[in-house]
Amino acid sequence: MQYIVVTAVAAIVTFLVVPIVRKVAFRTNQVVQPGGRMAHLKPTPTLGGIGMLVGFGAAMGAGRLLHAFRPVFTDSSEPTGVLLAAIAITAIGVIDDVWNLSAPAKVAGQVLSASLLWIFGVTMFWFKVPFAGIVVLSNSLTPLLTAIWVIAMENAINLIDGLDGLASGIVAIASLAFGLYSLRLEALGQLPSSSIGPLIAFGILGVCVGFLPHNWNPAKIFMGDTGAMLLGLLLAASTSVVGGRTANVSDQTFFFFAPLVIPFVILGVPMADLVFSVLRRTAHRVSFATPDKKHLHHRLMEMGHGPRRAVAILWAWTAILSAFALLPTYVGGLGFELPIAVAAVGVLLYTLFHPDLKGTHSRSGRAMQVIRSRRARSPQ
Predict the structure, then answer these.
(1) What span, in angstroms and rounded, lies between the C-alpha atoms of 210 and 187?
(2) What is the 3-state secondary structure (H, E, C) of the chain?
(3) Which residues on neighbouring strands pair with residue 44, listed in sequence order?
């Protein structure tokens, strides 16, 4: 129940604050014009990430007031570290959205946010290597891994944020799945009740739910780099303190054996897009910061899917991957694979063949209209 309260507070506050941010963005001319790589058709304000930050801060404040979360906030610097890092990356995002920072400057800001997490102890302590055991991180290695983890998450979410509602929907599904996974570990005694990971995950969920009504196609406001990097930072914080601290679980399921693998499965869509982007730019010998129209959502639109359908397809893949990661922790034994496989095949067939069918129907409809028109003009 306490997590429902936190999620609701984040959603309501975000939903109410974002319109205010939208008005300010219009008055200060922080508007993204259509054209180029942009899929929207009219000028749209950005900086929606500011409202998301306010919503997440409200969720953390609500958590602090709830008795159930007292172990999270008692004698711990982690909540302070998460909030300071969130404020820092939001400020970097605002500067980038307004003045378009260079790639090195943006990475420096991401390193700053990661450093704040590390300074306040929001980092992994060890991680499990499948079939090899536990690797305990040294004090000298932890800052580097924290920075890599945060930068990877922030850029993965930033790259996938290319269509209305895409990033916020994917992150909402992934954070719900990871939050439930964390609670399962906590119920089994493998994660301490003082872990801040589940609280962050459900706070992210609420923020995305509150922002999505304003961001669904046609979007009234964009989250911008401000919101995308904020979501990436929070996901990095949540996953690192759960996957990098879970006790030694002796269970037959792989996802219990290596909890740090869970984020890569649940966030498979943005992670795959990130990997493909790096490989693509490396092959063409261009800067990683060079924009292009070869991301997953661009390819779906090239296949004939509209913006809404492309978003729905990538949401569906995220839900399937989340179910694949989550169900083994709740369902004993085998049997969960079949419905997930059927769903995956269904989404795959819809992705590959639905545009062609739609095109066939469109052409058939136009042909019928031409025939009817000719019949109407021809003498009886």
Answers:
(1) 28
(2) CHHHHHHHHHHHHHHHHHHHHHHHHHHCCCEECCCCCCCCCCCEECCCHHHHHHHHHHHHHHHHHCHHHHHHHCCCCHHHHHHHHHHHHHHHHHHHHHHCCCHHHHHHHHHHHHHHHHHCCCCCCEEEECCCEEEECCCCCHHHHHHHHHHHHHHHHHHHCCCCCHHHHHHHHHHHHHHHHHHHHHHCCCCCCCCCHHHHHHHHHHHHHHHHHHHCCCCCCCCHHHHHHHHHHHHHHHHHHHHCCCCCCCCCCHHHHCHHHHHHHHCHHHHHHHHHHHHHHHHCCCCCCCCCCCCHHHHHHHCCCCHHHHHHHHHHHHHHHHHHHHHHHHCCCCCCHHHHHHHHHHHHHHHHHHHHHHHHHHHHHHHHHHHHHHHHHCCC
(3) 32
Per-residue pLDDT tens for 191-203? 888 899 999 999 9
pTM over 0.85: yes
CB 270 within 8 A of CB 157: yes
* pLDDT (tens digit per residue) in 97-150: 999 999 899 999 999 999 999 999 998 877 766 666 677 777 888 899 999 999
CB count in 10 Å sphere of residue 355: 18
Rounded-to-integer distance, Cα 292 and Cα 345, Å: 29
Token digits for 157? 């979410």
Asked if residue 97 lies in contact with residue 91, where contact means CB atoms within 8 angstroms, the answer is no
Distance of CA 70 to the CA centre of its chain: 28
d(CA 12, CA 21): 15
88 contacts: CB under 8 Å, gap ≥ 6? 109, 112, 113, 116
Q: Let me know: does 249 contact 190? Beta carbons within 8 Å.
A: yes
Q: Phi-psi bin for 133: left (phi > 0), alpha (psi -120 to 50), beta? A: left
